[in-house]
Amino acid sequence: MIKLSIKITFSLLVVVFVLILIGMFVPIVKTRLFEIAGPVIVFSEWVIFFLLGIILIILTLKDKVEGSPRKFLFLTGISAVGFLVFVLLHNLVSGFLSTIFNREIEEPIFFILAVFASPLGFLVGSIGSIVLFIKQKI
Length: 138
Hints:
With 138 residues, this protein is mainly α. The chain has one domain (4-136). The chain is built from 5 helices and no strands. Helix 1 packs across helix 2 (27-37), helix 1 runs antiparallel to helix 3 (39-62) and helix 4 (68-101) packs antiparallel against helix 5 (108-136). The mean pLDDT is 87.
């Protein structure tokens, strides 16, 4: 049986993920948020997403969740943490290479991990966790 703290953290993580997607893909919301708070709102969503991912990983380890729920919860948490880490690494490596070679250089590996792998991993982990929550009533 999975504790309520894990379920609440997981639910908050999914809500923040949806808010991030809305902010990215709904132009009216994106423009309005930038008018109100500037980039602070975007970066705060990412940091909250990152912190909730860490909390989910720690709670999953602490509560000794076993089997498939453990795998899906870890995938969800690691993907949430990985998103911000890969975004930062992409920008740092691109900036470093651009400084060394005195021209704009884009680094593709961390970009692909941040933009495609982390969200895909998050979706797989989230959907798997939700299915197991419903199926096993945990």
